[in-house]
Every structure is written in C-alpha cells, then in structure tokens.
Amino acid sequence: MTRIEVDSLTKEYGSLTAVDDISFEVADEEFVTIVGPSGCGKTTTLRCVAGLETPTSGRILFDGQDMTDVPVNERNLAMMFQSIALYPHMTLRENIAYPLKVKGVSKSERDEEVEEAARVMQIGESLDKHPGSLSGGQQQRVALARTVVGDSVAFLMDEPLSDLDAKLKVEIRKEIQRIHQRLGEPAVYVTHDQEEAMTMSDRIIVMNDGRIEQIGDTEAVYRYPNNVFVAEFIGNPSMNFLDCSLVELGTESATVEIEGTHVEFPVERSTESFRGEAAILGVRPQHVTVEGGDGRTLTGTLRLIEPLDDRALATIDGPQGELSAMIPRDSDVNEGDRVEISLNRFELHLFDPDSSDLVARSAKRSRTTPSTSDAEERA
Q: Which parts of this chain are annotated as the region Disordered (predicted)?
C-alpha cells in the first residue's frame, strides 16, 4: 500500500520557475495522469517524484515518509521513459533482468521474474533475441516488462508512447492499463496527449506554465473545465469559443446575445456573483449542428470539410470568427454554402473573459422528462 504526496513543490532553474508551488496526492492503486503542453512542468514534476531532480522547495512523501532528499536508487520506483534505452548487446532476457541484477536478486529468482514479466507482455518466445531484431512495438513491450519486474512501490512513466505510431499506441496503452490493474500499484503517467489521459486515467492533473489548472476525474475535467485553458486543451477537436454579451444569469437559466441572436440555456452550475456585461460562450464541435439555413439563428459560411470516419469536421466562418462542427459525412451541405448554426443548449459553457474562469455550465437534460426533439434541444 503506497500513497504519494506532493506538497507545495517548487522547482526553479535560475530565474525560470518550471514548477510553481503545486500539491497533489496519488492514492494506492490509482492511475493519475499529468497532462499539459510542452514546457508546462509535468516532466519536471515527475523527475522530482522520482528523485532525479531536487526540489527548490516543498516535499515528496511516500505513505507520509519524507522522501525529498532520498536518492533515486533508494526510492524503489519502477520508471519508464520516452527513450526505450534497451542495451543492444544484451538479450531481451538480460535487459529485463538487469534492474533485478543491480539489486542483487539471485539468478533463480531473476529468471522466475523475467519469465513471468515476459509472459504477461507476450514476448516469452523472444527472450534470447537482441533488441535490434525487434520492431518498435516489441521493444516497447520489453521496456515495459523491464519496468514491472521486481517489487516496486509505484510506477512513473514519462511519455512512453510518444514515438509509436497510432496503432501501436493503442496496443501498448492497453498493456499498461492491464499491468497496472494486475499489480495494483499507484501510477503517475506524464503525457501531452489528452486522448491518452482521458482513456487511461482515474484522475487527471492539467498543468500549464508550471501550475495546476485542474485536478479531477475524466468526466469532471471534460464536462466542468475550470477555465478556458482546460476547456480548450481537453477534448478533440478543441472547444469553440464565441464572444457574447450576458443578458441574464440566474440559478436555473442563462441568456446570452451573439450578434443580435439570443441563446438561452438551462444552468446546472453558475457563479451568481458574476455580473460582467461581456462573456465567452464555449461549445464543443460535437454539439454544433450545421444545416442549410435561412438566417433565423446564427449563420456562417462553410469554408472547409475534412472527412474523418463516418463524420467530418466542418470549419465555418461564423459570427465571431472561425467555428468548428462535427457533421455527418454524407451531409448535404457543401464548401462555400451559407449555413445555419445551431448550438445544443444542454452542452454550453460560459466563461469570464477577464479571469477565463468557468461561470456557468448547461444543465443536463433530465432523463425523467419526455424526450426533447432536436429542434427544441438546439438554441
């Protein structure tokens, strides 16, 4: 049973503050992902937890024990990095066993651990081969097997999938989840890929400029982003943002005006103290409907259609600049058309333009009420 606690961690490099007074905990058996853009401080945070970097201030604790100044080799952590770093002159068996050999584990016990790790990673028939004869995906499986051998207290992974192609990413991602569930040790995973974060994590820590913007489970971070940054970073394609005027904000409903068009939506969460005249309306492309229109609501010009799977991503010159919408691939609208833009009023976010904080979020449609037609659902 291990609980990792990061307490008021700050890491400075001269005048640069890479990590700025952050705190969080990782419970036993929990999979936590730190996600954010390049340079946000996520890798530096992980390296401080690992003991590869010394914090400027703050503490790292394992089960309440201060590990801040404990050397990396005494923290008993399993670590996996972006660089696979297998020893080319060693067989796979020797590569996997190497951490155990360094710890002084007997050969018989090493062999037993290696066989079990290789079986779990489905590379048992290749143990006597050398890394150079393997594909990138197989090498990643070897690196993961080397990570999980032995009796570590936690897993730390720093962008281990970033060099793999899309198909291999999905395969290895599943293996990591399966290993974590089997061993039950806490895991801290670092990535810039929000899709990895959303599919693998119990909780997500969103970082930006060395600070934590939000901590929560995937549902909370996706549906209730703390601010514009989180709303834009989490979700693919990114959320649309429309400048608007606030007409009314209450405990049950809100109304905004966009280029003379009123958009009203039910409110589930709101900051009643917000009284600004200007606001930002956020809506994800999945919740934007595009049709050949007559100008009764928001209108725009469809500039680009990018086919994806059974859908397409439409780019529209809307009332407040560029707007994205997910549309059926066989939609009857074409590039260059003047289109009507409808927003799902149960999937809207309202942000303060000054602080960028979330002010209100649409209430979900009640499942106990009669079904609402698409026309009623859109604002």
A: 357-379
Secondary structure tally for the chain: helices H, strands E? 9, 21
pLDDT tens-digit series, residues 324-378: 999 998 888 899 999 989 899 999 999 999 999 999 999 987 644 444 444 445 5
Q: Which helix (H) or strand (E) holds 94?
A: helix 92-102
Assess whether the previous peptide bond of 285 is cis (omega < 30° from 0): no
pTM tops 0.85: yes
Closest CA to 144 of 167, 164, 118, 162: 118
Domain shared by 168 and 75, yes or no = yes
Of the three residues 167, 196, 231, the one that is the final residue of a domain is 231
What SS3 string covers 171-208? Answer: HHHHHHHHHHHHHCCCEEEEECCHHHHHHHCCEEEEEE
**Among candidate residues 231, 264, 283, the one where a domain is terminated:** 231
Per the structure, how many domains does the chain have?
Answer: 2
